[in-house]
Design goal:
The chain folds into 2 domains: 7-125, no CATH class; 126-167. Helix content is 59%, strand content 10%. The chain has 6 helices and 3 strands, in the order E-H-H-H-E-H-E-H-H. It has a 3-stranded parallel β-sheet with strand order 1-2-3, covered by helices on one side. Helix 2 packs across helix 3. It starts with 6 loop residues before the first strand and ends with a helix.
């Protein structure tokens, strides 16, 4: 988890164990072959339950969580348990920026359509912050390139000195 990042989710499986048994069992069989449930939770619980991730990181990022009211499974098995368990975390307080937005779409668990999703991403993205981050990355790359160039020039100069000394 990157501190300072923001989570934007739609009908997410935040607590994998609460998803459909058939899918969870298939995932366990493929990803954790040879491990029993206790071993899986002990070794990988923070990868299968976002609340365990928050505990491990001792951090709760700002979250915007969209949930379709027409998906009873998402409401009952993901959203409600997430809210209950979130409030029980020692690191949770009212200052944590967790926003849950309910919407209705007849498609149930299906994600929002592309146009809605893009609009929400744009509304939630901090373009100035992202722009500054990518500019810093570009500057760092340029600095590294200059360093590499200087190092190559120094090595080349040393080789020429050695060559001239022995010729």
């Amino acid at each position: 988890m990157i501190k300072g990042s923001k989570a934007l989710v739609n009908n997410s499986q935040l607590i994998i164990e609460n998803y459909y048994d058939k899918h969870v069992n298939t995932m366990k069989k493929i990803c954790f072959s040879g491990l029993n449930d206790k071993e899986i939770v002990n070794n990988y619980g923070y990868r299968l339950n976002v609340l365990e991730t928050f505990k491990k990181a001792e951090y709760i990022p700002p979250i915007v969580y969209y949930v379709n009211l027409n998906s009873s499974h998402d409401i009952n098995k993901q959203c409600i348990p997430f809210i209950k368990e979130l409030k029980e975390l020692d690191i949770y307080n009212e200052k944590n920026n967790v926003e849950i937005i309910f919407y209705t779409d007849d498609n149930g668990h299906s994600p929002m359509n592309k146009a809605q999703t893009i609009k929400i991403i744009k509304e939630n993205a901090n373009y100035e912050s992202n722009y500054n981050y990518f500019n810093k990355v570009k500057l760092l790359k340029k600095e590294l390139q200059r360093y590499k160039s200087r190092k190559i020039i120094k090595i080349t100069d040393e080789i020429i000195k050695i060559k001239n000394k022995y010729i």
